[in-house]
Amino acid sequence: MPDMKIATYNVNGMHSAIKDGVLDWIVENDFDIVCVQETKTHPGSLPLLLLDGIGYRHHWHPARRKGYSGVATFSKVEPTKVYKGLGLDDYDVEGRVIRTDFDDLTIFNCYFPNGGSGAERQAYKMRFLDDFQHCIERLLEERPNIIVVGDYNIAHQKIDIFNADRNNGKSGFMPEERDWFDGWLDCGFVDSFRLKHPEAVSYTWWRTTQFARQSNKGWRLDYQCVSDALVHRIKSVSHDHEALHSDHCPVILKLGE
Q1: What is the CATH number of the domain that holds 80?
Q2: What is the pTM of this model?
Q3: Recorded E.C. number(s) (predicted)?
Q4: Which of 71, 80, 172, 202 has the fewest CB neighbours in a 10 Å radius?
């Protein structure tokens, strides 16, 4: 398996991100694979000539509802296989997961649900987390080289959120979500950023009000979780705080041979 440079980025709307130069950012950084979330669009409404012109293959899984959710994966080489969704209609209508296989490497590009709008959506989020984990656990037996990237909508530990005590119990930092994350890692994954930066206070999402980004009052919601079989290949992981196309920032993973 060759060296790879993989980015994950919640762009909070692909139309606006393109206007703000996200395609130039992809090309300039020479990524092998770019996974974007919250595209909020169908590919047919985008300038395909512009997308095709940057030299990447791109596969999309939009939500059925217009202007909502959606994921897309860009890659320099065509994946050997592409799977849109989990095969569970309750989640697949929201365009939350796209899987791409590159020979023996599998990448899941995910936009996990946000439960902040109320109890019903929080329950939906918890069901998604459990069902998603079960799907991955079954696949690990067949394909051990898996990376699960994207916006998890969970700050795992107190270090991953500004003012943890004040935010305790809010969606994204609920005890049951954090417990799920513990179990997720125990099933055979490593939080690659925390592995390389065990004490770093570094966030990937900020509210758009009250100068939250400028004062670094954020949450770490975006991850590249690497299966145990691939941990030895992790060279570096970073947050690109200079990328300003969204209220999130990208997470960049470099793998060696």
Answers
A1: 3.60.10.10
A2: 0.97
A3: 3.1.11.2
A4: 80
